[in-house]
Amino acid sequence: MSLPVRTLGTAALLVVLGTTACTPVRTHQGYVVDHDLVASVQPGIDTRDSVAQTLGQPSFTSQFNEGEWFYVSRDSSNFAFRNPRVKTQTTLRIRFDASGNVASVDETGVELAASISPYGKTTPTLGRGRSFFRDLFGNIGTVGAPGAGGAGGGGNTGP
């Protein structure tokens, strides 16, 4: 083989390897939505038991009452070591009335998902800043001081 053919072959191989290394990694999380099964859940007809038999257990339930079940499905993709980006998200909310019958079935997408940006690795709080030395030496002079409690922390132990 001549040198230009080897060079072209090596360049073509590098281009092929470079393009396959940048293919996105696609992931699915949560409930697998079957629209036929979701459409079969009818308000006023189905109950908690029939919904559990048809759709399975929910992704999570409402924390404040027993009246809502949520089924969450999310598809995302990312390149190499980047953070994944949500491509599609479906949230199915089923509301129940007091007797356990389905009151409504709602389906929403990614537009209602909140984007949260954490602030570093700590949560900012009000109050004084803490440091190692303040924690170590901060109680000097306060043990046994008037109004500071005392060693037992019980305060006033009078008759």
What does this structure look like?
The chain has 159 residues and is of the alpha+beta class. The protein has a domain at 23-113. Helices cover 25% and strands 24% of the residues. Strands 1, 2, 3, 4 and 5 form a 5-stranded antiparallel β-sheet that branches. Strand 2 and strand 3 form a beta hairpin. The longest helix is centred in the first third of the chain and has 19 residues, at 3-21. The protein is flat, with a radius of gyration of 30 Å. The termini are far apart. The model has no long low-confidence stretch (mean pLDDT 78).
SSE string, helices as H and strands as E: HEHHEEEEH
Radius of gyration: 30 Å
| Structural class by secondary-structure content | alpha+beta
The counted number of beta strands is 5
Looking at the structure, what is the overall shape?
flat
Describe the largest sheet. Answer: 5 strands, antiparallel
Distance between the termini: 105 Å
Beta-strand residue fraction: 15-25%
Average pLDDT rating: 78
Low-confidence segments, given as residue ranges, are: none
- How many helices does DSSP assign? 4
The helix content is 10-25%
GO molecular function: protein-macromolecule adaptor activity
Protein name: Outer membrane protein assembly factor BamE
Domain Outer membrane protein assembly factor BamE: 30-104
Keywords: Cell outer membrane, Membrane, Signal
